[in-house]
Amino acid sequence: MGLKLFDFYCIYKKDSDVCNLLLNKCIESAKEFDYNIIPYPGIYDDNIDTLVDKENIVICNDLLHKVQTKGVVGCFLSHYYLWKKCVDLNVPIGILEYDVAFLNQLPNNVLDLFEDYCNLDINRHKYFKQGKDVYSNKLTKTNKITVEELNENLSTSNSLLSYVDKNHISGAHGYIIKPSGAKKLLDFTKTYGMMPADIHINLKSCNMHYTSESIVYLHSDRSFRAKFSHTKNNGLK
Question: Which helix (H) or strand (E) holds 89?
Answer without folding.
Answer: helix 70-89
